[in-house]
Amino acid sequence: MSDPVLIVGAGPTGLTAALELSRFGIRVRIVDKLAEPFGTSRAIGVQARTLELLEKRGLSEEMVRLGNPGLAGSVYGGGARVFRLDFTQIDSRYDYVLFISQAETERILREAVAKQGVMIERGVELVGCRRTPSRTTPRR
After folding, report:
1. Who is most buried in 34, 77, 106, 124, counting CB within 10 A?
2. pLDDT along the chain (140 residues), means of 10
């Protein structure tokens, strides 16, 4: 049996990678240096394409239920609006940016990876790595 894929960090990206790899039967080991997940948000929302991906995994419905759709956004500079983004022009059934706490997004993803049998090793930090030759590694 091959070594698992090491995923460092149990944020949205690491959790999504673990979810997708484990779906294909690829063993993963996910570690995070934090003893507990953050209880606060470090991101403002989720884009339409991300919701489309999560919909295929049955995860978008709960996120949409918990979040708030943002239909437009403006960028200001020097006290005046520089431009306005109209998210309703996105070619998706999710024609908005979903404002949802990163803590909620991570919770939903943690539950999904747990259903795949993937456990997060907390309090484990990657401090370095090196490549060692193996019989399967071609020599140059």
Report:
1. 106
2. 90 96 95 91 91 96 97 96 96 97 95 96 94 69
Predicted model pTM: 0.86
Beta bridge partners of 74: 84
* Domains in the chain: boundaries: 1-41+102-129, 43-100
Q: Which CATH architecture fits 1-41+102-129?
A: 3-Layer(bba) Sandwich (3.50)
Q: Considering only CA atoms, which of 3, 52, 9, 58 is closest in space to residue 30?
A: 9
**Closest of 105, 13, 19, 113 to residue 62, by C-alpha:** 105
Query: How far apart are alpha carbons 76 and 84 in whole angstroms?
Result: 9
Nearest Cα to Cα of residue 120 among 12, 44, 10: 10
Which pair of structure tokens corresponds to residue 8?
């460092």
